[in-house]
Amino acid sequence: MSESWDVVVVGGGNAGFCAAQSAREHGARVLLLEKAPREWAGGNSYFTAGAMRTVHNGLDDVAGIIEPPATDRIDLDPYPESEFLGDLRRVTEGRCDPRLAEILVGESRATMGWLHELGLRFELMFHRQAYEVDGRFRFWGGLAVGAVGGGKGMIADHLRAAAERDVVVRFDAHVTGLLTGDAGDVRGVRLAGGERIEARSVVLASGGFEANPAMRSAYLGPGWDLALVRGTPYNTGDGITMALAAGAQPFGNFSGCHSVAWDAGAGTIGDRDLTNQLTRGGYPFGIIVNAEGKRFVDEGADFRNYTYAKYGARILREPGGRAVQVFDAKAMDLLRPEEYQAPGVTKVESDTLDGLAKELGIDQGGLVRTVEEFNRAVTGERFNPTVKDGKHTEGISPAKSNWAQPLDTPPYVAFPVTCGITFTFGGLRIDEGGAVLDTAGRTVPGLFAAGELVGGLFFFNYPGGSGLTAGSVFGRRAGRSAAA
Ligand SMILES: Cc1cc2nc3c(=O)[nH]c(=O)nc-3n(C[C@H](O)[C@H](O)[C@H](O)COP(=O)(O)OP(=O)(O)OC[C@H]3O[C@@H](n4cnc5c(N)ncnc54)[C@H](O)[C@@H]3O)c2cc1C
């Protein structure tokens, strides 16, 4: 026996819920199918900090969508479309699809308003995107607004909003294939166990292939099977695989992904309690060395938001796929307690660099030499974490371009890190309405897509907070088209 719906959405993360709400708003009867059990609700979206990059005109503009802040000592510069687009183009080295990028940026603020009306709650992210300097909280890096309660809060809000608007959500519903007509049109989905569910339209929002080691090593390259998964184990590329089998066009950076410095002692899949607390994003205020005690990246090349998503891949290329972040006592107050003081954090401390290296099991002479050379190379004026302060090194390679301070104040503290993969960049090609395109550039009738499995937006790197916004903007569009 098979049931029949107007729209079936595959995947219950942020993009899937947005697509479902949008289809519902346009009159469709909507069923959302989620592979995971309820205890794993929310996909990768659950694991996020809930940070959402959006265009805005400053504090007065975002005031309408956020909870009232506890202080008025706030400096929040406007973040216009030109800057968001510029950031996207710069970090993707000019490769982001121009039309998808324009839509993402142009609809970001309106979509935040739409989410707020659906019942999602937002706040200013004082704890991760601002520092207090001269008595004022100054926001930096083009990112200020996040979901209350992070990804956990966002998914709780999505589940409540779905129930309020009669979006039917079914867990333990593993979609294994698309039902197609003779003309290749999509007419529903097949579930593990053989059940068939018919629908006028299907929206795929089932994430990338980051939790599939075979696909990782096939597309991203050798060694990627060894990366730790930061989020859900259920994003195994199913939607991409079934859409490609139905003739969809692969698009975007299939050899690229979002990956970060991640606690070297973390498990192979995400931790539902700690979620993003296993990230180690404080490296702009210290140095990163490999097992030989050598630096290999410019830790201060830019604000963390613009470098963190590509440095995981750099760490994976170092010996053993590991590295160590090293700080002195001066930097410790700048490290987010949620990350660097999280329960079970992998950490080594010593009053000497020699002792630190010994405890870490890395090259002692190498580390001491690196720090001595680094300290001698530091130049520039006043240290300021809220701007690119230009306090840099001279005469060493790689340079450190900002926030360079000598490591000279014990105790020295080190955090061993490895590569944590967040999500993959390659995926399906969609048109402006979220319809999936085939290899001839024509729409696959009845098939839409949103979220991580859409290709073409991100290449090599990523401006922090763009994934949830992209899933929301394109989820909303795909849901509207699927209902039409
Ligand atoms: C630790 C961490 C922190 C992050 N922090 C941020 C942040 O602060 N801001 C930001 O913008 N982005 C962040 N991201 C990235 C963000 O998670 C993604 O960009 C976004 O959540 C993707 O949403 P989605 O709905 O496409 O995918 P998901 O939220 O992963 O949802 C996909 C869903 O599809 C389901 N599914 C998979 N296969 C099937 C199938 N065959 N049948 C049925 N269901 C299926 C999965 O179980 C999953 O629930 C972070 C990611 C991680 C892991």
Low-confidence stretches: none
CATH architecture of the largest domain: 3-Layer(bba) Sandwich
Q: Write out the distinct hetero groups bound to the structure.
A: flavin-adenine dinucleotide
**In angstroms, what separates the terminal alpha carbons?**
26 Å
What global shape is seen? globular
Helix content: 25-40%
Q: Provide the CATH topology of the largest domain.
A: FAD/NAD(P)-binding domain
Q: Tell me the count of domains.
A: 2
Summarize model confidence as the mean pLDDT: 97
Indicate the structural class.
Answer: alpha/beta
Number of helices: 14
For this entry, give a set of tags.
single chain; 484 residues; FAD/NAD(P)-binding domain; Flavocytochrome C3, Chain A, domain 1; 2 domains; eight-stranded mixed beta sheet; six-stranded mixed beta sheet; 22 strands; binds flavin-adenine dinucleotide
Please explain how this structure is put together.
The chain is α/β, with parallel strands linked by helices. It has two domains: 266 residues, FAD/NAD(P)-binding domain (3-Layer(bba) Sandwich); 163 residues, Flavocytochrome C3, Chain A, domain 1, CATH 3.90.700.10. Helix content is 29%, strand content 21%. It is built from 14 helices and 22 strands. Strands 1, 2, 9, 10, 11, 12, 21 and 22 form an eight-stranded mixed sheet that branches. Strand 10 and strand 11 form a beta hairpin. The protein starts with a strand and ends with a helix. The structure holds flavin-adenine dinucleotide. Flavin-adenine dinucleotide binds next to helix 1, helix 2, strand 3, strand 19 and helix 14. The site of flavin-adenine dinucleotide (FAD) has 42 residues, from helix 1, helix 2, strand 3, strand 19 and helix 14.
